[in-house]
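Q: What structure does this chain adopt?
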Amino acid sequence: MVSIVLFNSYFFIFLFLPLTLVIYFILNSINLFNVSKVWLVFASLFFYGYWNFIYLPLILGSILFNYIIGIFLSKDLSFKYKSLFTKKSILIFGIVADLMLLGYYKYCDFFISNVNNLIGVNLSLLHVVLPLGISFFTFTQIAYLVDAYKGEVKQKNYQNYSLFVTFFPHLLAGPIIHHREMMPQFDNPELKSFNNKNLASGLFLFFIGLFKKVIIADTLAVWANNGFDNAAILTFIEAWTTSLSYTFQLYFDFSGYTDMALGSALMFNIVLPNNFNSPYKSTNIQDFWRRWHITLSRFLREYVYIPLGGNRKGNFRNYTNLMATFLIGGLWHGSGWTFVFWGFLHGLAAIIHRVWQKLGFKMHFILAWFITFNFVNIAWVFFRAKEFKSAIKVIRGMMGLEGFVLPNRLAGILAFLGGYGVEFGNPVENMQIGGIITVAFVLLIIFLAVIIMRNSNEVMERLKPNMKYAFITVFMAVWGILSLNKVSEFIYFQF
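A:
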């Protein structure tokens, strides 16, 4: 197995992306528009297959299968056995086949291990390797099938469909896209010519994402990993440092990937949907899911929650649908009970919020933000933990059940706290990450940046390519590229 083509790699930045761009626009400049799309499909498949070419038949077979099913769903069934093969039965067949493929690769070993634990047998695990991006291109194509069933698919060009699924900026970790927002762009003649503004804007957004990933997320990853995976116990400050480090790591890692994806696509004059809108500014859990991983939220709402009945069949059914949607969302993220429990927590929070609204209660927005942020932060503990034991270790520390340690320099003025079990020393000693002053300063700056500063979407809305933004782009690019000293995959690659 060879390395993945990462956005945060020399190969992608200096060879793959510029070469793909140059050839694409050269082909367009001589009116070889279909050839340029084939080139993008080829480049995207190379991008995917570079990880392990043995999985190319998997994605190619998935594309061909769903395209054929989509064709049947998009036309009148006037053949001989119409009574046996209704559109609904074809849709169900397509979705079940997609989910079985996803289930085999993602949940097979999870199912076997649970059977072993439940009935006391010792079935051998298959140790199936999860293909990159399978969750994302499966959900993308399920949405396509449902829309085809509804008669919303107007274009049936196989070339465009293949590019829609494989387009490399979104292929491995989203955003989860709709055909109606992507396919028209591939044939728009106004988007075929090289665009200086889109290139400049795309580079700016790409290097914002690189900076988020390499400088911020990868730094926080060391702290979070030491807390979750290495420390035997965590005192109060260590536990909160661990949880907050992961909370911010996850945001900057995934939003960084999304910025790089959107920036890469924009260089080709293709606009991908936004996926983040300052989620940690949310004042309730519904607001959070309108801001966090927006395209996944949209998919779960349109293709799970609403088909289950949404809020149309009474309160109890509404709450059941909410919980089912979040449980499915949790399980989609990973084959582990910690992910399911994380989904359960968010489902429970969504139900409480819905009841709160129906009762007409109000809360000051600062208190509402405080509760929402801390709930999300605590829930991420179960999302990150490899097992419940690790999560409980962090939660116990956050509750102060493993003791309190304050810096030595406070021992003089706070010595009286020793009588209440407070100790003095290095508050983050078990995490092996240096001094508390540095850690506290970094977390405070990141916190203020997330809560106060404009997000990438807002910056791009105001962006006017000039020397100021050129300097910022070069600064972030140089700092980010000089920091590419180790391979660091994006968190959502594992989902």
